[in-house]
UniProtKB/TrEMBL annotation:
One of its GO terms (biological process) is DNA-templated transcription termination. Belongs to the NusA family. PROSITE patterns: KH_TYPE_1 (PS50084). This is Transcription termination/antitermination protein NusA. The keyword Cytoplasm applies. Participates in both transcription termination and antitermination. One of its GO terms (molecular function) is DNA-binding transcription factor activity. The gene is nusA. The lineage of its organism: Bacteria, Pseudomonadati, Bacteroidota, Flavobacteriia, Flavobacteriales. PANTHER family: TRANSCRIPTION TERMINATION FACTOR NUSA, TRANSCRIPTION TERMINATION_ANTITERMINATION PROTEIN NUSA. One of its GO terms (cellular component) is cytosol. Keywords: Cytoplasm, RNA-binding, Transcription, Transcription antitermination, Transcription regulation, Transcription termination. Pfam families: KH_NusA_1st (PF13184), KH_NusA_2nd (PF26594), NusA_N (PF08529). The keyword Transcription regulation applies. Residues 233-306, 307-385 form the K Homology domain.
Length: 411
């Protein structure tokens, strides 16, 4: 390989990778200096001239002429005899500039040069990809499913950049086929060594925010602001929205006539049930709205411990708690306080749980006390699933407790 062949092949590579002229020159120069250091021990006495526009590459070795018996550093000095082989009139002390051809560096040096050029170009390519996608974190991208594994899916965009969608960032009901188009949000961009890894997410609240922006013009234009999104991906979500224009109904605008606008988002999220809520700074009113579709009778707020007791009628308990506790859990996340649901019924004669110490172990009673259940009726007012989750008890244990307590009042 000669100098011109090297630069021509590299220019083709540069055009393919879309590398600018200055970067090309820097990569070539750095790579050549590495080869020169390996062969001559130093690159200080060399001039490298790269002109990719003309396809020129010149390397000049600069050395000072010394007497034959005084030659010590062949990288910086040349003997008078060797200098006069180049030009007969050279004298001691003068500087000799001699061209160096790539082919004269040897096969090993050429191989090192080739490998280093590829490595430097890839590093540049990786850096560009990292910077590009780092700026796009939090934005929606779409791509084609390229490869499916048990723990992740590889998706490629139009420029063949690979993006990874981990299993934990997929909606539980997601099912992908090779070649299909998938939308997701760029969750994070990290470096694995020098190579950027673009991690996507379909479970992130940000994904839902971006879908609202894409599908609802008022959100995109900033007329409606999304204050907060909380999700149980694929199951249920609550979205608090607000408009500073009194003429706009933010909930109605997001849902659309007969749900026409939000339907596209629901379908994209595998039929995730979305409650759109009108945001307010009135905390009690916000809690009432967050508990939708349940109707709240009264609310007690413990600001110090960031806990809320919500009382609902008997026929509203299941709505308030929701399937698998989804409604009360999401409402808690939306307002930033722990919400406990209680039946709002007339106070009748009650029995302290401690009175049942013969029927229940002390640790069971203690577990119920820790979640604020001190009496028989306070336990009976709760849903079985709720107590199982909050008190960390087995469902069989809770059902047995309920049976014993209910029998007390039947008697």
């Amino acid at each position: 390989m000669d100098n011109q062949a090297l630069i021509e092949s590299f220019i083709e590579f540069k055009d393919e990778k879309n590398i600018d002229r200055i970067t090309l020159m820097a990569i070539l120069e750095d790579s050549l200096k590495l080869v020169l250091r390996k062969k001559y021990g130093s690159d200080e006495n060399f001039d490298i001239i790269v002109n990719p526009d003309k396809g020129d590459l010149e390397i000049w070795h600069n050395r000072v002429v010394v007497e034959d018996d005084e030659l010590e550093d062949e990288s910086a000095e040349i003997s008078l005899t060797d200098a006069r082989k180049i030009e007969e009139d050279f004298e001691v002390g003068e500087e000799v500039s001699e061209p160096v051809l790539i082919k004269d560096l040897g096969r090993r040096a050429i191989l090192t040069l080739s490998q280093n050029l590829k490595m430097k170009t890839l590093e540049h390519d990786y850096a560009n990809i990292y910077e590009k996608f780092k700026e796009l974190e939090g934005e929606i991208v779409s791509g084609e499913v390229h490869y499916i594994q048990r723990n992740h899916v590889i998706i490629v965009d139009d420029e063949q950049n690979e993006m990874i969608l981990p299993k934990q960032q997929q909606i539980p009901s997601d099912f992908f086929k090779k070649g299909e188009t998938v939308r997701a949000v760029i969750h994070e961009v990290v470096l694995k060594g020098n190579k950027p890894q673009i991690v996507l997410s379909r479970t992130s609240p940000v994904f839902m925010e971006r879908l609202f922006e894409q599908e609802i013009p008022e959100v995109y234009d900033g007329l409606i602001t999304i204050k907060k999104v909380v999700r149980m991906p694929g199951e249920k979500a609550k979205v608090a929205v607000e408009s500073y224009d009194d003429r706009i109904d933010p909930v109605g605008a997001c849902v659309g006539m007969r749900g026409s606008r939000i339907h596209t988002i629901v379908r994209e999220l595998r039929n995730e049930n979305i409650d759109v809520i009108n945001f307010t700074n009135n905390e009690e009113l916000m809690i009432q709205r967050a508990m939708s579709p349940a109707q709240v009778s009264r609310i007690e707020i413990d600001e110090e411990n960031k806990q809320v007791k919500v009382y609902v009628k008997s026929d509203q308990v299941s709505k308030a708690i929701g399937a698998k506790g989804s409604n009360v859990r999401l409402a808690s996340q939306l307002i930033g306080k722990e919400i406990d649901v209680f039946r709002d019924e007339p106070q009748e004669e009650d029995v302290e749980l401690i009175e049942f110490s013969e029927e229940f172990d002390d640790w069971v009673i203690e577990s119920l006390h820790k979640i604020g259940l001190d009496t028989a009726k306070s336990v009976l007012a709760q849903d079985v699933d709720y107590i199982v989750e909050k008190a960390d008890l087995e469902i069989e244990t809770v059902e047995a407790i309920m049976t014993i307590l209910a029998r007390e009042f039947e008697e």
